[in-house]
Amino acid sequence: RRWVPLDSAGLSLVEAIVGIVISIIAISSLAYSFGIGRSFIYRFDVSRRAMGVAQARMEYLGALPLTSDSLAFGPHPATTVPFVYNATPIGSESWTVAPPPPATPAANSLKLVTVRVIWTQTGSSDSITYARLVPRP
Length: 137
Description:
Number of strands: 4
Largest sheet: 4 strands, antiparallel
Distance between the termini: 102 Å
Structural class: alpha+beta
Order of helices and strands: HEEEE
Oligomer: single chain
């Protein structure tokens, strides 16, 4: 039988409590970082969906006849078009038709169409803007 001095026979209560506190802090920090990561993923998903909506609207406008009321100069539409994410309206979609900047080659034969999707997510506003030059009639 081997004798061990009492002061080196194991962990003291203070050492055990310090170890537990350090473990709790580490696990809490890890859980917090997972929550932040999830919110970034959610924000990216909403942004990706908004960009898809803006591109779809631009494709729709590009397929219209150039004399369509939706391609007249000015803001559109007259009523709000909701931006829906997971069956919940969280923002709106709109577009503006304007003359292109004067420095644009062949500016007198083009229209600048700008589609904007705006939404509010976790208390802050965000938006996607998508612009394209289309031929004027």
